[in-house]
Write a structure and sequence with these properties.
The structure is a single chain. The two termini are 28 Å apart. By secondary structure, the protein is an alpha/beta fold. The strands form two sheets. Strands 1, 2, 3, 4, 5, 6, 7, 8 and 9 form a nine-stranded mixed β-sheet that branches. Strands 10-11 form a two-stranded antiparallel sheet. Helices cover 41% and strands 22% of the residues. Helix 4 packs antiparallel against helix 5 and helix 11 packs parallel to helix 12. The chain contains 13 helices and eleven strands. It has two domains: 106 residues, Alpha Horseshoe (Serine Threonine Protein Phosphatase 5, Tetratricopeptide repeat), CATH 1.25.40.10; 165 residues, Rossmann fold (3-Layer(aba) Sandwich).
């Protein structure tokens, strides 16, 4: 049976004061009607009664941002950052996305965990039905093409990073003898655990998980996962560590064409530039098999451009001796080891 941990999904919206909550509810209705300025002003009044209400500062920043008052939004997020020690509201990311701070290069664990704990019950309906998300099936098709081209018929062991509710795992299951799923969100792990897709499920941050992984895999996947990780080199190095010679890595990224290796979008997801991404794969010791542009999903009615990538860890070159007893390197095609 898969191993998973149940979680009580965090809720942040109650202030603990009935009067403040009523004002917040009215502010939400104003925001839903499009009057974000009035919603922000009402939340400000509520915060005068409950200045330590963390979620209220998050709402205030959101409403000011949508009202076009970015300076006021930044002020609210600074209050939020001071109150939110665990970082579950992502205040530092919101500040960074608006040029008022630094995002850092790694995953914002508290924010991502809280985001997907909240998102888990409606994840599939929102992502697949409303946002036309098709990354798992497209990555699966590219994996199938790589398998055919390399003469691979099946994988003994695979790791699905950021497994979520199992959308990628469902497509991998028929190709893999042992399938491991790992996700930062315990609520996501609980959701997918009910489906019985994975042989083992683990709640963990992915770089820490890969660094401690005790064996090696023939396939590693990450469908829309590295968009929350920031810098790619540490992630790719950790993935390459657990890959056997000849193993495949398949993942998606949101893309941008600027000079930076990655930058943080207002969506609080990272976009990566193609050429630095290629170099990061080379630096991790991986060969690129597929590197293509694609529309990953819709977001607010607009297509999200991204990259679909399949790479392979080169097969180890066995040593042989010449007549003088010197070591010779004998090249072996990766497919010969599968």
């Amino acid at each position: 049976m898969p191993r998973c941990t149940l979680v009580l999904v965090k809720t942040f919206h109650s202030s603990g004061d009935v009067i403040v909550d009523r004002r917040a509810d009215y502010a939400r209705r104003l925001a839903e009607s499009g009057d974000h300025m009035a919603a922000a002003e009402l939340i400000e009044q509520a915060l005068e009664l409950a200045p330590g209400w963390t979620a209220g500062w998050d709402l205030l920043g959101s409403y000011w941002e949508k009202a076009g008052e970015v300076a006021r939004a930044i002020s609210a997020w600074r209050h939020l950052e001071a109150l939110d020690d665990a970082g579950v509201f992502g205040a530092h990311l919101k500040l960074a996305a608006h040029g008022a701070g630094l995002a850092g290069e790694g995953t914002s664990i508290g924010y991502v965990e809280a985001l997907f704990d909240q998102y888990a019950p409606r994840f599939e309906s929102a992502l697949v039905q409303k946002l036309a998300y098709r990354v798992p099936e497209r990555l699966d098709a590219l994996i199938g093409e790589a398998m055919a081209g390399k003469g691979i018929t099946a994988f003994a062991e695979a790791i699905d990073l950021g497994c979520g509710t199992g959308l990628m795992g469902e497509r991998l299951r028929g190709k893999v003898s042992f399938l491991e799923g790992v996700d930062l969100s315990a609520a996501m792990v609980a959701e997918t655990g009910r489906k019985g897709i994975y042989d083992r499920l683990t709640k963990a941050e992915l770089v820490a998980f890969l660094t401690a992984y005790p064996s090696q895999a023939d396939l590693v996947t990450a469908a829309d996962v590295f968009i929350y990780c920031g810098a790619l080199p540490p992630v790719l190095a950790a993935a390459a560590r657990v890959m056997r010679p000849g193993a495949l890595l398949a993942f998606s990224l949101e893309a941008h064409d600027g000079p930076e290796p990655q930058f943080l979008r207002p969506s609080l997801r990272y976009a990566h530039a193609p050429e630095p991404t290629r170099q990061a794969l080379v630096d991790a010791g991986l060969d690129i098999l597929c590197f293509e542009r694609a529309v990953l999903r819709q977001d607010r009615g607009e297509p999200v451009e991204g990259l679909l990538i399949v790479a392979q860890k080169p097969a180890a070159a066995p040593l042989a001796l010449n007549l003088a007893g010197e070591a010779l390197v004998v090249d072996v095609e990766p497919e010969a080891l599968n």
